[in-house]
Amino acid sequence: MIFLPMEIIKKKRNGFPLTSEEINFFIQSYTKSQIPDYQMSALLMAIYFRGMNNEETLALTKSMLHSGITVDLSSVPGFKVDKHSTGGVGDKTSLILGPIVAAAGLPVPMISGRGLGHTGGTLDKLESIPGFNTQLSLEDFRKNVLEKKICFIGQTQEICPADKKIYALRDVTATIESLPLICASIISKKMAEGIDGLVLDVKFGSGAFMKELSDAESLAQNLMSIARGYGKKVVALLTNMNQPLGRFAGNSLEVEECVSILKNETSQDPVEARMVNETRELSLILSAHMIHLSGQTSSIDEAYSRAEKVLISGKAYEKFLELCQIHSGNLSLLPRPEHQLAVVSSQKGYINSMNTEAIGVAGLLLKAGRAKASDVIEPTAGVEFHKKVGDSVSIGEKIFTIYGKDPGLFASAQVKLLESLSISLQKTAAEPLIKKILS
């Protein structure tokens, strides 16, 4: 059927549900460039304000999934499993858990995304490794998952092309934090990659798209429902993004942190060690759930023990090196920042809270992410954290270090970072990293 795009936009703007035929017409026409960006932007904004019911969200997911082809991994033996995070600041676990789970013997096909808004993207992190090519063909993707148990690729023109176009628009039209748009984007890509199981890391807090725990839980339940509707095993963890994860936020800086964990290196500085352990622990727990979904372990504790043994043995690091090799990445040439600036406290007390989104915006100001779709990322730009919630600070003590290639960008980022902090005389206890597990 043929519809008028303006009438569909108007219908959703006025709060009426769209039919599956209307949704499919709009998505397929936009994918074929028969509907311009400005009309899709209008529909996205209408969806953002008016929402979608379950039937609309499912129809949107299906239309985005079938805008391209799905990957047939039936020739790959074993339980194929992936993880998806809804995004945060310093959220780098895919680079650790992928090699752990693959080294444990499970195929890990990953179709990953780029940075969205103030949050980082797995592809951007990997591409900070010189030569690392995430634009492999689907045939190479299948071959690597079969032979090496792991492969990371971005969306190709064949896989969910509708989502690829819409994803870029959402990033620059302030329509990211829409539950139906998030659900359709995530599940369409994950169902296209031929997996049997999916672990969801759904973030909540100041640095997440879902600020409230209740909203994150609603998102998780919706994602799980759609995935189960496609016959997939799924579990969701609700994790805290009221402060950044780990020690660094920024592409090559996060790769360096992950490599340190994969090599089982430890810092003599207790604060640094604690922050890196946050990344390590969440990566292991997510790995454990991926392994447990396969049915190969009788408990999460057994799966965790298996994942940790793989990490400690060095097999996960070997798998990461193998991953770099199949993607033509040269880890030995990982770039280092040319400039840095210490950001110090002007107050004495305790870190009471951190506005993690503001920290992510500081990263955007440093060119660690994209403020608009055409922006070029500076791979060495980012922020190091020396303090987290509950830590004491003195006047003149270092809280952040800013890194990058262009020191002319540091001043505005410094202002944003200092604005992100709340310091009080009363000590505040940090919240647990994992709030709830839905299974």
Question: Can you tell me about this structure?
Answer:
It is a single chain. By secondary structure, the chain is an alpha/beta fold. It contains 16 helices and 13 strands. About 45% of the residues lie in helices and about 15% in strands. Helix 1 (about 5-15) runs parallel beside helix 3. It is globular, with a radius of gyration of 21 Å. The mean pLDDT is about 95.
Helicity range of the residues?
40-55%
- Secondary structure: number of strands: 13
Poorly predicted tracts of residues: none
Shape: globular
Strand order, biggest sheet? 1-4-5-13
- Element order: H for helix, E for strand: HHHHEHEHHEHHEHEEHHHHEEHEEEHEE
Radius of gyration: 21 Å
The percent range for strand residues is: 5-15%
Mean pLDDT across every amino acid position: 94
**What is the CA–CA distance across the termini?**
40 Å
Report on the biggest sheet. Answer: 4 strands, mixed
Separate helix tally = 16
Q: Based on the structure, what is the oligomeric state of the protein chains?
A: single chain
Protein structure class: alpha/beta
